[in-house]
């Protein structure tokens, strides 16, 4: 599908109608050039000769003036762009009227720059007046041909190296820099009615356009941003041979632009790929180190490993969202730590679908898509979590098809399923948690069969039952009851809430119900913890830490059953660390 215009393009107006610029309609020269300090890269490094710096700043000034006319100016922007087009023509005749065009005129003459090259920048801003969306990445690259690639070509003209093959390499670098800027500015661009992320990518990640106006990025949008940044890194990598084809000052300047792009891409990781909540800015020290590396060594390739980056994406999710599990996961060696983070990240995604604010119908559609994702998982996936899972399944005996059971359990949550008997509840727990136990067993490097699989399943059930008991009040307020109906009847409990959202049942009856559940859960821990002797030392420590934290939580509940009727309880961080340390030392929790 073609790019989507928000209105019909107006007929081009005569430049003669815009011979005068109204006061304040265009910025002062100093205001435009000062923006160079906030760019992702150094526009004109001081180590370059004055003549070269003047040419580079003239190019920058022209490009920024055009952007201002197309993005920020008051009044008829189409008319201002026509005026700039006319004054650009006068620059080639030696008679420009605007100050920044007067500064640009000596550069175009001295460097032999064809007028068609800077004209493309004006055409890009004309497009911005009526094209608000790009359906495909190919359409976006076509826009970059006008909006970004001319800058690299102008730089090559300044250094006398505007050769066809070098221009093709430069185009990749400039398109990458433009894509990274779009990722940084998705909120700002959306506020102006524009979306530069390809619509088919947003759709593939399940992102609605309205999510671009949120204060923080959803998990789906963060995944989409990761994918676009990954694309930009690949473009930078494929354009990097340009540096090796240049020498001297040209090489130094272009290496600086690439270094700025690499540093910008890397800045998305600590920001959690959330440019809505965090201003993503490149670290100046990182820019400098990349610049030195790229300038000094022609064989120094851009380090771009999308599988590694995918694992790091998953580990960040796990570190920030799995506060209990991460105490154990961090005890694993790197390969297994990354693999278990990938498993957790996908499980968390499924869980978030079930707990989210979408309608039940939409949730079931998302869960169906999750099933398809697991069936089609591969190294070329767009989604970083799926990239990491594909590599995990390649390295370790992890049965990814087990995720279907997790999705079964989440679908039961969406449908509001209640459980009459404890056997029905344990089946649900095997789906949503026993499945993760068996997947974890594969991550530990153990075949997911026989007694080990049964014990991993039992340990998962124990953890899930502990969760259910811990979240008794929170779940009830959300309309969910997991405890079996037969148990509620046995203890004369209804789990009804009063106007304050508190249980109306007699406290003694509630306490007895909680104690009974805690005793029953202990039996599942007894069976599940028999898995530990079957694991290697590091995997055993990880498993013992994760289970130990929940087991300790269960003991707190058994000691004070009324606590779960007042709200959700947690262990202090210090106590979690003690459990993890004991697990690593081989001590019992």
Please summarize what this structure is.
The chain is an all-alpha fold and 589 residues long.
Protein architecture, described:
- With 589 residues, the protein is mostly helical.
- It has 3 domains: 24-130, Orthogonal Bundle (Farnesyl Diphosphate Synthase), CATH 1.10.600.10; 134-141 and 160-304, Farnesyl Diphosphate Synthase (Orthogonal Bundle), CATH 1.10.600.10; 310-584, Farnesyl Diphosphate Synthase.
- Helices cover 65% and strands 1% of the residues.
- It contains 28 helices and 2 strands.
- The protein has helices at residues 29-34, 50-71, 77-93, 99-111, 116-130, 137-147, 149-158, 164-184, 186-191, 199-204, 219-239, 241-245, 248-267, 284-296, 306-321, 325-329, 334-355, 360-375, 384-395, 403-414, 422-443, 450-470, 472-477, 485-490, 507-528, 537-559, 563-566, 573-584, and strands at 4-5, 131-133.
- It starts with a strand and ends in a 5-residue tail after the last helix.
- Residues 1-19 have low confidence and may be disordered.
- This is Farnesyl-diphosphate farnesyltransferase.
- InterPro entries: Isoprenoid_synthase_dom_sf, SQ_synth_HpnD-like, Squ/phyt_synthse, Squalene/phytoene_synthase_CS, Trans_IPPS_bact-type, Trans_IPPS_HH.
- Pathway: Carotenoid biosynthesis; phytoene biosynthesis.
- GO terms for molecular function: geranylgeranyl diphosphate synthase activity; squalene synthase [NAD(P)H] activity.
